[in-house]
Specification:
With 89 residues, the chain is mainly α. It has one domain: Orthogonal Bundle (Arc Repressor Mutant, subunit A). Helices cover 44% and strands 9% of the residues. It has four helices and two strands; from the N terminus they run ααααββ. It has a two-stranded antiparallel ribbon with strand order 1-2. α2 crosses α4 and α3 crosses α4. The relative contact order is 0.18.
């Protein structure tokens, strides 16, 4: 096969797919904005949340860290994640 035969006659673009941790973060964010999670609310343990979201704990932690960076949740003394979302209402 010649090199020119390998060149595609069309442009290939990546597919826009949300990453798992982004989808998990979006669901938690929605729960905060809808009032299902209120300031000070303790989130369930990581293992339980991962089972509920049907994802890995790694993806869940990535989502929680993203929300922590946004200031929507926080963790105290590595015990449990808490919602700190009062200022968004």
């Amino acid at each position: 096969m010649a090199h020119s035969d390998l060149e595609a006659p069309f442009k290939i673009t990546g597919l826009a797919r949300p990453r798992v941790h982004e989808a998990v973060a979006d669901q938690i964010r929605q729960a905060i904005f809808s009032g299902l999670l209120s300031p000070g609310h303790k989130l369930p343990p990581e293992r339980e949340m991962a089972e509920r979201f049907q994802t890995s704990r790694v993806a869940l932690r990535e989502a929680l860290r993203a929300l922590e960076k946004e200031g929507m949740i926080t963790i105290k003394a590595r015990i449990r994640w808490r919602c700190v979302c009062g200022r968004f209402r």
